[in-house]
Write a structure and sequence with these properties.
Chain lengths: 258, 201
């Protein structure tokens, strides 16, 4: 039985969870690890922490985040931000993370994907792609928190990333991110069609039905942030919606740790 | 005190933190001779892991302690290492604490990653309170083939049905990661920790 996954995502800036709209206009949503532990208890299948702090000691920051998360989170979690070389990934995984997400560093030096996959296995390597729609309908990969275009076609980049050893694609639509208007289904579908690894749809979830639609067009997992952070919907609510739509979700234990 | 066997591979820290969460003290160590229970974690390739285990002297300790009746729990690769041999890479002999072998999972898409349902075919100390089935987080490409059906506690399905939980007297193992399987996984570790509190004759 393969279960589709619901993945709450914490964007972390200076130790606090933040969530913006289209990567700007950022609001505070609390302590990342406390929030993550809460989502674990609610039935989150995995968790993602993306550190967006723009400081030089970023590596130390993400290792500490992984360490704190491992103390309180007992589902698999991914850490992104600050992983630029194999040693960074080694430290983050050693601190208790299960996977690392890479974005800008991989676009700057694609061989990083090969190196990480070789040392840790593809299952540890998540390629995060921030994609923005071009006027002609194609999609371009952006870096630096969505500020800088790379000139690289997002679909081509996804395909190349998987060939190099990425085990998963975390696909964010910059046009939908934080809007609650639903995922960019056309983008999700296109990327899911060109790669044979799981695609995590990200950017735009506002209603349980949005999650159903992303899974319907080929996503293997759905990432949510503001929909959960600001309490508009809970994880049990969205899982209930997924089940009603015919997607199996993992059974959640009713038995307390008594 | 529960010893988490340290041979340089595996997510020892996650196991330690999960045990702490259920109130069980543990220590990460390559000397397990005084432990009241032992956990053998593991991530990586079988032959490399066996080389590390032999190099640290853990192999003999684990075999001796298991025979002495100390509760022993293998997790993921740690489960596979308990068996007699594996075909991974060039192939290698295992600890031989449990009868059986380890071969590649018969599935079109590997590794097997994600939450999967484990059905329990018999009762065991490890799965007490978990009902007939529960979901756990799996990450692996190889699976154990126990020689004795009586050792099989739980099976999962991914391309084929494979054994994901075993128990033979004081020796038990899970192919998935209880330390990453939320409440049900923590429950399993709590069940194991309870065995550590019982004095070994």
């Amino acid at each position: 039985m393969h279960y589709k996954r619901v993945i709450p995502c914490m964007d972390v800036d200076n130790g606090r969870v933040v969530k913006g709209t289209k990567f700007i206009d950022i609001r505070d949503a609390g302590d990342p690890v406390e929030l993550a532990a809460h989502y674990d208890a609610q039935g989150a299948d995995e968790l993602i922490f993306l550190d967006i702090t723009a400081t030089s000691d970023k590596r130390a920051t993400v290792v500490e985040l992984a360490r704190r998360a491992a103390d309180q989170v007992f589902v698999p979690f991914t850490i992104g931000g600050g992983v630029r070389q194999v040693q960074d990934a080694h430290d983050v995984l050693g601190a208790g993370a299960d996977k690392v997400a890479i974005n800008s560093a991989a676009l700057a030096r694609p061989e990083l994907i090969d190196e990480l996959a070789q040392v840790f296995g593809a299952q540890c390597v998540v390629l995060a792609i921030d994609a923005k729609r071009r006027p002609d309908g194609s999609y371009e990969a952006y870096v630096a928190g969505g500020r800088t275009p790379t000139g690289k076609d997002a679909l081509e980049w996804a395909r190349e990333g998987v060939e190099r050893g990425a085990g998963e694609i975390l696909l964010t639509s910059m046009d939908r991110d934080g809007t609650n208007d639903g995922y960019e289904l056309r983008l999700t579908n296109r990327v899911a069609n060109v790669v044979d690894v799981p695609v995590i749809a990200s950017g735009g979830a506002g209603h349980p039905q949005d999650l159903v639609e992303a899974l319907t067009v080929g996503a293997d997992a759905v990432l949510c942030a503001s929909i959960f952070h600001y309490g508009s919907h809970t994880i049990p609510e969205v899982k209930d919606a997924l089940r009603k739509a015919g997607f199996e979700t993992r059974p959640i234990a009713a038995n307390p740790l008594a | 005190m529960i010893a988490i066997a340290d041979y340089g591979m595996g997510n020892r820290r996650s196991v330690e933190k999960a045990l702490a969460h259920v109130g069980a003290a543990s220590v990460i160590t390559s000397d397990v001779r005084d432990a009241s229970a032992i956990i053998l974690p593991g991530v990586g390739a079988f032959p490399e892991a066996m080389r590390s285990i032999e190099r640290t002297g853990l192999g003999e300790q684990l075999i001796e302690r298991a025979a002495a009746g100390v509760p022993l729990l293998g997790i993921c690769l740690g489960m596979q290492l308990l068996f007699e041999s594996s075909t991974e890479h060039e192939g290698a002999a295992g600890l031989g604490i449990l009868p059986g072998t380890v071969t590649r999972l018969e599935s079109p898409r590997l590794p097997h990653i994600g939450w999967n349902l484990v059905r329990f075919g018999r009762e065991s100390a490890l799965t007490e309170g978990l009902g007939d089935a529960a979901a756990f987080y799996h990450v692996h490409s190889f699976a154990c083939r126990p020689a004795d059906d009586g050792d099989v506690v739980g099976v999962s399905e991914y391309g084929e049905r494979f054994v994901s939980v075993v128990e033979r007297d004081n020796v038990m193992a899970a192919q998935f990661h209880p330390e990453k399987s939320s409440i049900d996984g923590l429950k399993m570790l709590k069940n194991f920790a309870a065995l550590a509190a019982v004095p070994v004759a």
